[in-house]
Amino acid sequence: MSNINIFALKLFTAITLILLLFGQANSRDLLVFSSDAPPHMIAANNSGIDIDIVKIILTEMGHKVSIEFSPLKRAMEQVKKKEADIFLPTFFQQDSSNIFFSNAFIKYRPMIFSLKKNHLSIANFADLKKLRVLSFQGATGYFGEEFYQATRQADYTELHDMSKFPELLLMERYDTVVLDYYIFYYFLKMYQEQSELNGKPLFPFVDNYSSLIKRHDLIAEVDAYVGFNDELLRDQFNTRLKQFIEHKRDKEIIEKYIGTINSRILVLNSQHQSTS
């Protein structure tokens, strides 16, 4: 082997070793705090749409990630005090001397749901008047004065257990449901799967219950962010996040939790009955 080739081999080996050592030196054990709010964050198995997106990016950056759960206000304080490295989700805030916010990693999508068969036209909040409206606890404090005034003239209910919302809409206990897009379809998918497993599907000839739902998109999307106690780590995360979203890897994670939302009805009950 020529001296040039031997030198090139030694140089390549040295560069490879430096890169490996650099990668190890920059690898960290990161403690991430979040709250429990399926499907965004699921404490039962340390997963969820939000957690998976952030954890996958950080893991691919070479870090080891641990997840713990607490109220988000407490989680932010722990990050500020460097008792934890990261918390999520959070909403728009300016960077400070001890906490740094990422670019938006997901958009929360509050909206109004009804049954297609009822042909409801909801162009503004005033159209909710005199309807039976179901939403989550504290909703009137989120969506402004117009929404609040509309609920005062509607048959309005707030419930804590959002897992029942799709079922209550399908059973026509309410005319509309106001809820985050991802939460609604996550629990709708779970309800369909569980009812089919029990052998008592509400709509046995419908292949996807989402096809029965109409969405009324009146409420602005809300960007969600990740909070860091390290500015450099935040910047590195933002670079990877941009690539992650450009390659639509976030969409793959979302579909894992809420399924494919379509508008196709395989066979309606009435069609089945007319041919049987």
Can you put this structure into words, describing what you see?
The protein has 276 residues and is an alpha/beta fold. The chain has 2 domains: 3-107 and 222-258, Periplasmic binding protein-like II (D-Maltodextrin-Binding Protein, domain 2, 3-Layer(aba) Sandwich); 110-220, D-Maltodextrin-Binding Protein, domain 2. It is 40% helix and 20% strand. It has 9 helices and 11 strands. The protein has helices spanning 3-26, 49-60, 72-80, 144-152, 165-170, 181-197, 231-246, 249-258, 269-275; strands at residues 29-34, 64-69, 86-90, 100-101, 106-108, 110-115, 132-136, 155-159, 176-180, 213-216, 222-228. The strands form 2 sheets. Strands 1, 2, 3, 4, 5 and 11 form a 6-stranded mixed beta sheet that branches. α4 (144-152) links the parallel β7 and β8 (155-159). The longest helix is centred in the first third of the chain and has 24 residues, at 3-26. The protein is globular, with a radius of gyration of 24 Å. The termini are far apart. The relative contact order is 0.16.
Topology:
Elements lengths: L2 H24 L2 E6 L14 H12 L3 E6 L2 H9 L5 E5 L9 E2 L4 E3 L1 E6 L16 E5 L7 H9 L2 E5 L5 H6 L5 E5 H17 L15 E4 L5 E7 L2 H16 L2 H10 L10 H7 L1
Parallel strand pairs: 1-2, 1-3, 7-8, 7-9
Antiparallel strand pairs: 3-11, 4-11, 5-11, 6-9, 6-10
